[in-house]
């Protein structure tokens, strides 16, 4: 079975545009298939370079009050597509028909029907079909097997890259973000999320703080539009529950520990300023940001001049 796919693919070894997914006419590399799914992993080493402006290395670079940049609405609506955040949904639903959405880490391809139902062109990629939860295999699986660090996709050919709960599973997250920036069209969106404050998460590599999210996107040349705590799970509850059975007493124990963590600090602020920290404020959120940090980033209209290099 071969699916109808858009004409966006490139050789993962020589970067020549591919007109078929079985052979590269430029370097004559042949591509295997796994259950009819083209397998496009590189066989050559590659050099990757980053430009780091002096200002990007300062720890105080991101103003404390802009660490979280909340979208109009967010959070997972369990009734709709699996794992889809409302803020991401708002972007996807407003795309012009025919826009190309490339999903990285698509698992079973559970977003395919939802996106196609909205007139969008969907390409689901994953590194393997074996890591997919059994209950997601019914969605048809990935269209392409490839590596997020070496996307077999042409420069500036995709309108949106979508990657929910994927970036913690990448060995080199900044390199993969750079790949996203490469394949996005100008003004295109990168919608993603990564695990944070979860004690052990399916052989993950790097869990992302909000600051780490900002700097990863920035290093890739992307513009951060929104960053927010997606699940707002109290850290202590996450540590107690994850990997264990989520029972009510355990949840309450975690909440109690969270109150102990938060309340003395809140009291101190209250006594000093006579104001209670705002619900969505940084302070309150810091005690409830386990689960995932989510983001919306954009490929800027013109290449951004790194700070410190302006004339
Ligand atoms: Zn090639």
Order of helices and strands: EEHEHEEEHEHEHHHE
Overall mean pLDDT score? 87
CATH class of the largest domain: Alpha Beta
Which bin fits the share of residues in helices?
10-25%
The chain-level structural class is alpha/beta
DSSP strand count: 9
Number of domains: 2
Runs in which pLDDT lies below 50 for 5 or more consecutive residues are none
CATH superfamily of the largest domain: Vaccinia Virus protein VP39
For the sheet with most strands, the description reads: 9 strands, mixed
Query: Could you tell me the radius of gyration in angstroms?
Result: 21 Å
**List of distinct ligands in this structure:** zinc ion
Beta strand %: 15-25%
Anisotropy-based shape: globular
The CATH architecture of the largest domain comes to 3-Layer(aba) Sandwich
Give the helix tally: 7
Q: How far do the termini sit from each other?
A: 55 Å
Task: Give a summary of the structure in a few sentences.
This protein has 7 helices and 9 strands. With 311 residues, the protein is α/β, with parallel strands linked by helices. α5 runs antiparallel to α6.
């Amino acid at each position: 079975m071969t699916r109808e796919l858009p004409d966006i693919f490139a050789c993962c070894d020589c970067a020549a545009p591919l007109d078929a997914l079985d052979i590269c006419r430029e370097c004559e590399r042949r591509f295997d298939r796994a259950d009819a799914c083209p397998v496009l992993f590189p066989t050559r080493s590659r050099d990757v370079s980053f430009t780091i402006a002096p200002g990007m290395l300062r720890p105080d670079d991101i103003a404390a009050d802009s660490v979280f940049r909340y979208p109009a609405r967010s959070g997972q609506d369990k009734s709709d597509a699996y794992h889809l955040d409302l803020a991401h949904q708002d972007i996807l639903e407003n795309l012009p028909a025919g826009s190309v959405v490339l999903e990285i880490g698509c698992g079973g391809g559970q977003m395919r029907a939802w996106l196609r139902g909205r007139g969008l062109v969907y390409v689901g990629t994953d590194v393997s079909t074996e890591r997919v939860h059994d209950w997601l295999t019914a969605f048809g699986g990935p269209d392409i097997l490839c590596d997020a660090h070496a996307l077999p996709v042409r420069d500036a050919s995709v309108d949106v890259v979508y990657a929910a709960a994927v970036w913690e599973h990448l060995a080199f997250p900044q390199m993969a973000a750079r790949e996203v920036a490469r394949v996005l069209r100008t003004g295109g969106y990168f919608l993603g999320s990564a695990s944070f404050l979860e004690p052990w998460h399916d052989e993950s590599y790097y869990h992302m703080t909000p600051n780490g999210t900002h700097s990863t996107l920035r290093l890739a040349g992307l513009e951060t539009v929104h960053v927010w705590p997606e699940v707002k799970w109290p850290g202590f509850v996450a540590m107690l529950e994850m990997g264990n059975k989520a029972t009510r007493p355990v949840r309450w124990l975690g909440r109690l520990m969270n109150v102990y963590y938060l309340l003395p600090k809140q009291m101190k602020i209250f006594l000093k300023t006579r104001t209670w920290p705002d619900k969505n404020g940084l302070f309150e959120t810091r005690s409830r940001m386990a689960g995932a940090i989510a983001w919306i980033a954009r490929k800027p209209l013109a290449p951004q001049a790194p700070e410190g290099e302006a004339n």
